[in-house]
Amino acid sequence: MEYQKPELVTAEKAAVIFGSGQPREISETLIAASLNLQDREWVEKWLIHFTSHPDSDVRRAAALALGHLARLHRQVSREAVEAVRRLRDDQSLAGAAADALEDVEIFTREP
Prior knowledge:
InterPro entries: ARM-like (IPR011989), ARM-type_fold (IPR016024), CdiI_Ct-like (IPR049796). This protein is mainly α.
């Protein structure tokens, strides 16, 4: 897999893509939204939603998005953490979930 810089995305465009049902586009947009949108809570609502998506790549992107939010905003909601924590039960996503939760622990600690 080769790194691709996420495109800039607006909340309006992201919402359209999230409703498209296209797993690859949803995954890419979750990452782009977590890196570019300032409304952390809005992005969290979508990542929580997508942690139960049938496509494992979408669920993996939701976990990665949580890690990005923690790093960039230095806070995340308990609900988002719990949603990603549940992904540890899926063997194929356990590593991604653990990485995201570690980011939360590292970047949201009080000094």
